[in-house]
Each structure stands twice: as C-alpha cells, then as structure tokens.
Write a structure and sequence with these properties.
mainly alpha; two-stranded antiparallel ribbon; 3 helices; 2 strands
C-alpha cells in the first residue's frame, strides 16, 4: 500500500499516515500545553487568557493543515475561499452581537 498522498475522482487529496500522525502529535502537545497553563497556573489570569487563545489558534491551524489538508495549492483554493467566507461571516455575527449587547447594556444602565 502506498502511503503517499492519494487523489479521489474529484481531485481532493488525502494525507499520508505520516501527516496524520504528526497532526495528532501536535494536537496532543498543544492540548497538554493548554491544560498545563490552566491547571498549573503558570501565568496570571491576565496573561493566561491570551496564551490560551494563541494555543487555540495554533491548534486550529494544525487541524486545518494536517486533517483537512487546507493549503495554498490550486486544488484547495475554493475550500480556502469558502472557509475564509465562513470565518468572516461568523466574526461579523459574533462582533455585531457583542456590539449590540454592549450598547443595550450601556443604554439600560443610564436610566
């Protein structure tokens, strides 16, 4: 059995065992680091939250790269565009909701 990347009829690439194992190892390491930051109280709370956010972002990138095989190749261009649109839409919805809730809170507290 060939362990290199294979392509199905739609041109989508599937990763090798090596890429899946590397992705799994990176994911476990990042999860352990996040757990260690929280349980070990390595950083003060004001620093722990940004550290956890950075570790979460790196974990998302690991998953996108090693498990979803998103990269800069021409085969993946439409997947990356769709993913970017989804992230942009989610950011607008979450940001807009937070903005509305903040404005409601400010206006309700003034009365």
């Amino acid at each position: 059995m060939d362990h290199s990347n294979t392509h199905d009829s739609a041109g989508a690439s599937h990763g090798s065992y090596k890429s899946y194992i590397l992705g799994f190892i990176f994911s476990v390491i990042l999860t352990a680091l996040s757990f260690g930051v929280v349980v070990g109280q390595v950083f003060p709370a004001s620093t722990a939250v940004p550290a956890l956010a950075i570790l979460a972002l790196v974990q998302v990138l690991v998953h996108l790269t090693f498990f979803l095989h998103m990269n800069a190749s021409s085969e993946q261009r439409w997947n990356v565009v769709a993913f970017t649109f989804t992230i942009l839409t989610a950011a607008i919805v979450v940001g807009g909701s937070l903005w509305i809730m903040h404005n409601v809170s400010v206006n309700m507290m003034s009365r």
